[in-house]
Amino acid sequence: MPEKPMNTASPTRKPSRIQKRNRKLILDAALEVFSTHGYRGATLDQIATCAGLSKPNILYYFTGKEEIHITLLNGLMDTWLAPMREIDPEGDPLEEILRYVHRKLEMSREFPRESRLFANEIIQGAPRIGPHLEAGLKPLVDETSTLFEGWMAAGKLAQMDARHLIFSIWATTQHYADFAAQVRVLMGEADVEGGARAHLDMMFRRLLRP
Questions:
Q1: What is the sign of the dihedral through the CA atoms of 148, 151, 156 and 157?
Q2: What string of H, E and C letters represents the secondary structure of the chain?
Q3: Which of 190, 37, 38 minimizes the C-alpha distance to 125?
Q4: Of 56, 74, 120, 159, which one's alpha carbon is 20 to 30 angstroms from that of 182?
Q5: Which pairs with CB-CB distance under 8 Å and at least 24 residues apart come from 65-68?
Q6: pTM for this entry
Q7: Quick check: 160 and 168 in contact, CB under 8 A?
Q8: How much is the average pLDDT of 25-41?
Q9: Are 86 and 78 in contact, with CB atoms under 8 Å apart?
Q10: 200 and 141 in contact (C-beta within 8 Å)?
Q11: Distance between CA atoms of 167 and 22, rounded to whole angstroms?
Q12: Digit-coded pLDDT (tens) for 153-174
């Protein structure tokens, strides 16, 4: 049976422990379902089964799968952009970028489902997260590109297109999450993360050194 609706007369009322737990169960289950089946292939029934809740209980907390999907994407954007925000303009340029590369690789290991969720949304044309790309991602990429260009102009990094450098970092790190099944087949029992870290470190050092 679905829970009785909360009293909406008090907008400041805090959700109960059970409500917080159930929302977390729903979002975690939805992350699994969306990252596996994509938005179009996912259903509320699948999310309910994965969460161990009834479909009416899912609809008590969210109006439908689109609201669940948007909630996940909004939270993901904050997590995904954090490492770029942490690049220190006063630090050593090469080491700051390599630290960013390493962190993005670590995130591919720590958050593979989140990476696939984001990739699926972008592949579909970003119908739900498009405004957040304009409002959140683009200004940060513009700011970071300007920082990299300043380092290049000062002779601290090799000359290249700063935005394509950022795209290359994303492509070579998130690949390990988005194509994890393929990587596992091709690499077998090898230390994938250790090998990737060493390879990316060598590649970007050679690319970026002036």
A1: positive
A2: CCCCCCCCCCCCCCCCHHHHHHHHHHHHHHHHHHHHHHHHHCCHHHHHHHHCCCHHHHHHHCCCHHHHHHHHHHHHHHHHHHHHHCCCCCCCHHHHHHHHHHHHHHHHHHCHHHHHHHHHHHHCCCCCCHHHHHHHHHHHHHHHHHHHHHHHHCCCCCCCCHHHHHHHHHHHHHHHHHCHHHHHHHHCCCCHHHHHHHHHHHHHHHHHCC
A3: 38
A4: 74
A5: 65/30, 65/39, 66/128, 68/26, 68/27, 68/30
A6: 0.81
A7: no
A8: 91
A9: no
A10: no
A11: 37
A12: 999 999 999 999 999 999 999 9
Averaged pLDDT for residues 70-97: 92
Query: Residue for token digits 């002779």?
Result: 155
R_g over Cα of the chain: 20
Length of the chain: 210
Report the sign of the C-alpha dihedral through residues 70, 174, 119, 141, in that order: positive
**Nearest-5° angle of CA 175, CA 180, CA 183?**
85
